[in-house]
Amino acid sequence: MSFKLEGPVLEGALVRLEPLDHRHAADLAVAAEEDRSSYRFTWVPRAAEVEQYIDAQLARAATGKLAPYAQVAKSSGRAVGATAYWEPRSWLAEDDLSAIEIGFTWLAHSAQGTGVNVESKLLLFRHAFESWGVARVDLKTDARNSRSRAAIEGVGARFEGVLRNWSRSWAPGEDGRLRDSAIFSITATEWPDCRSRLEKRLAGGQVGAQRRALRDRRLFGDPDGA
After folding, report:
1. Percentage of residues in the chain with pLDDT exceeding 90?
2. Which of 43, 104, 115, 172 has its CA 20 to 30 A from that of 83?
3. Beta bridge partners of 101
4. pLDDT digits over 3-56, tens only?
5. Each residue of 161-184: pLDDT tens digit?
6. Would you say residue 134 has pLDDT above 90?
């Protein structure tokens, strides 16, 4: 395969996806040590492991099979999680990308449910379909991870089935065991509808946030006196 997997900076209203680097380590160490209760089926480094985690992701990137990102919240300028493109596949021509997976995704507890994940997926999907011209994007998770499965379906991916004993389990106490993986995808023909729904969802969330801010100013006063 001659296609070179490189992820450019991708920027939205809520999040900027920056190629992962050691400059993100301090922020990610803080993000990883927030409430970890949602990480039951996902491996997220502890603060002391973040530097080695970044080294490992950059080593995978050097093979051409991974493009890792830090998810940077624009409201704070701080990295609040990570994600990646990986498993590039070419079926029709060696220099053409046919399919890509999005994975290695985690977010700090405080960033979950804020729209950061939704916008990150929109940015990643849009670049894959509209810049690389892929035929499909895959997403996978532990088949038991109902929260992750709901989130993946929530960004418009279609459930395709469960791949048995597909990959390493990250669940506590399951070292050396394999997990069943639920696989989801979006195809190129589905992308326009998916994009429209994600954009509407994000617009609705921003309107809701503006209304809450206005309500709070009316109830508690505007600290800036505007």
Report:
1. 70
2. 172
3. 86, 138
4. 678 889 999 999 999 999 999 999 999 999 999 988 888 889 999 999 999 999
5. 999 998 888 787 888 899 999 999
6. yes
- How far is it, in rounded angstroms, from Cα 149 to Cα 47? 26
Closest CA to 22 of 70, 78, 74, 67: 70
- pLDDT digit string (tens) for 66-75? 999 999 999 9
| Strand pairing category for 136-142 and 99-107 | parallel
Asked whether residue 211 carries a pLDDT value surpassing 70, the answer given is no
Dihedral angle computed from the Cα positions of residues 182, 188, 194 and 198, in that order, rounded to the nearest 10 degrees: 90
- Rounded percentage of the chain residues whose pLDDT exceeds 70: 88
Task: Give a three-class secondary structure readout of the chain.
Answer: CCCCCCCCCEECCCEEEEECCHHHHHHHHHHHCCCCHHHCCCCCCCHHHHHHHHHHHHHHHHCCCEEEEEEEECCCCEEEEEEEEEEEECCCCCCCCCEEEEEEEEECHHHCCCCHHHHHHHHHHHHHHHHCCCCEEEEEEECCCHHHHHHHHHCCCEEEEEEEEEEECCCCCCCCCEEEEEEEEEECCCHHHHHHHHHHHHHHHHHHHHHHHHHHHHHHCCCCCC
Residues 2, 190: Cα–Cα separation, whole Å: 27
Contacts of 108 (CB under 8 A, 6+ apart): 30, 31, 32, 34, 80, 81
Residues in contact with 7: Cβ distance below 8 Å, sequence separation at least 6, in sequence order: 17, 19, 67, 68, 69, 84, 85, 127
